[in-house]
Specification:
The protein is mostly beta strands. Strands 11, 12, 15, 17, 18, 19, 20, 22, 23, 24, 25 and 26 form a twelve-stranded mixed beta sheet that branches. Strands 1, 2, 3, 6 and 8 form a five-stranded antiparallel beta sheet that branches. It is built from three helices and 26 strands. The chain has helices at residues 6-15, 97-103, 359-369, and strands spanning 42-46, 53-54, 60-70, 76-85, 93-96, 104-106, 116-117, 122-130, 140-149, 154-164, 172-173, 182-185, 199-201, 204-206, 213-217, 241-243, 248-254, 277-284, 287-294, 306-307, 312-315, 327-332, 342-343, 346-355, 376-387, 393-396. The protein has two domains: 42-164, Immunoglobulin-like (Sandwich); 172-396, Glucose Permease (Domain IIA). It binds zinc ion (ZN). The site of zinc ion has 5 residues, from loops. Zinc ion binds next to loops.
Length: 399
C-alpha cells in the first residue's frame, strides 16, 4: 500500500509544515514515530565519510561532498546552505547563493557550477570547513538548505545530509622529495582540479584525488622552469628523486610510457594512462599512496617489492595526463589510483617557507609565462609537525 500519495507530497511541501498522517498523535501528546515526518522537494546525502585533517595553517579542515537532488518537476534555486556540527546552534559555515554558485555542480560535473537545479536534476556541493585554530572537529555534520521552489512558488528550509565524521587520525608520511623550494600545486582545500575530481567510474562516483598535491620545484628566482617551456629538462622538478613516504609494499606500478611535451595536456589519452608511469605503495592501515607521472625508465620498484621510508623509488617526469613535469601524490583507501576514495594525510615534519596567496590563477600564469610565482614568505618559517601543507605552500623537506 502506498502510504503517501503524490498529491499529499505536493501539498506538504507547498505548505512547509510537517505532514501529519491520519491517526497520528496531536502535538500536545507525547511524540510518536510518525511525528515530524515531512515531505521535501529536495533530498540530500553526504557522498563519502568526511575526515578532518590539520592544515599547515594550524586549523582543522573538513573537505567533503553533499549531493542534492531536486525531486520536483520544476526549477529549484538553492539560496543558502548552512553547515552545523554536532548539536551546535551556531553554524560551522554558511554559504550564500553566490558562494553556492561557485561550489555546487549540477550532475557533479566540475566547471558546470550553478545555484539552480532543473526539474528532477541533482548536483554536488563541494564543501570545505575551516575550523577556528585550536577547535577540534565535530563528530557529526548536519545541513540546512534554504531553497526556492518554482513548483510551489515558495521558499522552504530543509534539514538533510546528516553524516558522521571519521575520527581516525590521518596517515603520517615522510618526505616524498628532497630539499627546498617544493611548491604544493592544486592542493587542499579550495583549488578545484583535484578536490573536485569526482568521476563516474564503473557505475559509481569516486573521488580518489581529493587531497592530491602536484609537487613542483621553484628555482631560486621563484620560477618553475628556466629556458624552453616545451622541454621537460627545463623544469627544476624534472628528474628529482621520488622517495617512499613510508615503509610498505609496492602493489602496482608501470614504467613504460614516454614523456609528454610540456605546455598542454595530451589529447585523446586513454583513462588507463592518465597516471603515466606510476607506483602505488601500500603503507598499511588501509592507506595506499599514489605517485604519478614518473620519468620514463626511472621506476625502480616492481609489484611485491618491500620498501623502507626514504628509499628512492623513481624520478619525477611528465608522463600520462600531465602538462608539465610534476609529482602527483595522493593517499587513498584502496590500491586502484582511480577506483578509491581519497584520504587526508599529514607529513611528519617539514618547514613551510612561503605561500602563493594569489592562488591557482597566479600559479598557472607562472607556468605559462615562465615568470616567478608571487610568494609571501613566512617570517620566521613555519615548522610543520604532522600537518598537511595547504595549497601553494613552499616546503623545505630538510633532507
Ligand atoms: Zn595531480
Amino acid at each position: 500500500m502506498c502510504l503517501l500519495t503524490r498529491t499529499m507530497r505536493l501539498a506538504a511541501v507547498a505548505a512547509l509544515v510537517p505532514l501529519t498522517l491520519p491517526g497520528a498523535a496531536r502535538a500536545e501528546t507525547p511524540a510518536t514515530p510518525t511525528q515530524g515526518v515531512t515531505l521535501t522537494g529536495l533530498v540530500g546525502k553526504v557522498l563519502f565519510t568526511p575526515q578532518p585533517v590539520l592544515g599547515s595553517d594550524g586549523r582543522q579542515h573538513i573537505v567533503y561532498e553533499l549531493q542534492l537532488s531536486n525531486v520536483t518537476g520544476e526549477r529549484v534555486v538553492v539560496k543558502r546552505l548552512t553547515l552545523f556540527g554536532d548539536d551546535d546552534k551556531e553554524p560551522l559555515a554558511t554559504l550564500d547563493e553566490a558562494e553556492i554558485a561557485r561550489r555546487f555542480s549540477p550532475a557533479g560535473r566540475r566547471g558546470n557550477e550553478s545555484a539552480e537545479l532543473g526539474a528532477f536534476q541533482y548536483g554536488v556541493a563541494f564543501l570545505h570547513i575551516s575550523l577556528p585554530a585550536g577547535r577540534s572537529a565535530p563528530r557529526r555534520l548536519t545541513h540546512q538548505v534554504d531553497a526556492w521552489f518554482d513548483q510551489f512558488k515558495a521558499d522552504a528550509a530543509i534539514q538533510l545530509g546528516a553524516a558522521a565524521v571519521a575520527t581516525a587520525a590521518p596517515p603520517v608520511l615522510g618526505p616524498p622529495l628532497r630539499g627546498d623550494n617544493n611548491i604544493a600545486g592544486d592542493g587542499c582545500c579550495d583549488s578545484t582540479r583535484h578536490v573536485r575530481a569526482l568521476l563516474p567510474l564503473n557505475g559509481a562516483f569516486r573521488l580518489s584525488q581529493r587531497f592530491a598535491i602536484d609537487w613542483e620545484k621553484l628555482g631560486g628566482d621563484g620560477r618553475l622552469f628556466a629556458g624552453d617551456r616545451k622541454l621537460v629538462g627545463s623544469y627544476h622538478i624534472y628528474g628529482q628523486p621520488i622517495l617512499a613516504v613510508s615503509d610498505g609494499t609496492i602493489v602496482d606500478m608501470r614504467g613504460d610510457l614516454a614523456d609528454q611535451v610540456p605546455g598542454a595536456l595530451p589529447d585523446g589519452l586513454p583513462v588507463g594512462e592518465a597516471d603515466g608511469n606510476f607506483a602505488v605503495l601500500d603503507m598499511g592501515g588501509g592507506a595506499f599512496v599514489l605517485y604519478a607521472h614518473m620519468k620514463p625508465g626511472s621506476v625502480r620498484v616492481k609489484i611485491g617489492d618491500r620498501v623502507r621510508r626514504g628509499d628512492v623509488i623513481g624520478a619525477v617526469g611528465n608522463t600520462g595526463n600531465s602538462s608539465e613535469p610534476h609529482l602527483h601524490l595522493h593517499v587513498m583507501d584502496g590500491p586502484s589510483p582511480l577506483l578509491a576514495n581519497g584520504l587526508p594525510y599529514v607529513f611528519e615534519a617539514a618547514t613551510v617557507k612561503a605561500i602563493d596567496l594569489a592562488g591557482t590563477a597566479d600559479f598557472d600564469r607562472a607556468a605559462e609565462t615562465g615568470s616567478p610565482v608571487s610568494l609571501t614568505p613566512f617570517v620566521p618559517p613555519l615548522a610543520l609537525k604532522r600537518a598537511l601543507p595547504l595549497d601553494l605552500t613552499v616546503v623545505d623537506w630538510g633532507n
